[in-house]
Amino acid sequence: MTIDVRKIVVGVEEVRHDGGPKLDRPILKGWIAAVLKNPYAGRYVEDIQPTMEALKPLGLECATKLLEALGGDTAAIEAYGKGSLVGAAGELEHGALWHVPGGYAMRELLGEALAIVPSMTKVGPLGAILDVPIHHRNAAYVRSHFDGVTLMVQDSPRPDEILFALAMTTGGRPHPRMGGLTQDQISKRDGQR
User: Per its UniProt record, what InterPro entries does this chain match (predicted)?
Assistant: First the structure.
């Protein structure tokens, strides 16, 4: 199966504070979106799982480009997430094709990444906004890292396209004050706590 990528877009923001004191180290929040032709647009296909295998190189390419945009240091990445935005001629299930290629690529690239990668999938029109949930890469219950990245690619997805996205950050929210498990309290090494 050929994966026909029309474009790849990368966005990075540098958060210096969020209304409170300036941070000693800015937090980088980045995302990458790959926009590609949906091979199933306009028709129902029973077995679409082989496409997950075909998407694995794209997942690794996207994860690598995003890591580079955030400075290239795997140890600096604290949180991640993924998402899909399917054009109107597709179906929600087509966005689920990104679960393995996107999530596993980030986990493989980062080395130690124990937590499942949170995800959002939706069908939307040209220029739709995608909110990608993120949480800590090693413990999903680290409350300070419950966050998200909002992205939009103006000319995407066309009705017969899918936008697949990854997100990574170098920190949690700038001024966490909601208690709960903190990053330095991760102990179970089970991906949750």
Answer: AA_synth_put (IPR009569), BB2672 (IPR035936)
CA–CA distance, 120 with 95 (Å, rounded to integer):
9
- 149 three-class SS: strand
For residue 100, the model assigns a pLDDT of 95
CATH number where 9 lies: 3.30.1330.110
Per the structure, the complete domain to which residue 30 belongs is given by 5-185
Task: Look at residue 192 and tell me if it is in a domain.
Answer: no
**Tokens 């958060």 sit on residue:** 15
φ, ψ (nearest 5 deg) of residue 62? -65, -45
- 79, 155 Cβ separation under 8 angstroms: no
Instruction: For residue 69, tell me if it sits in a domain.
Output: yes
Question: Which segments in the chain show pLDDT lower than 50?
Answer: none
Per-residue tokens: 121 = 């999938």
Residue holding tokens 């949480």? 135
Domains of the chain: total: 1
Q: Is 84 helix (H, G, I), strand (E, B) or coil?
A: strand
- 193 within domain boundaries: no
What global pTM score does this model have?
Answer: 0.95
**48-96 pLDDT per residue, tens:** 999 999 999 999 999 999 999 999 999 999 999 999 999 999 999 999 9
b/e code 1-10 from CB counts within 10 Å (16+ = b): eeeeeeebbe
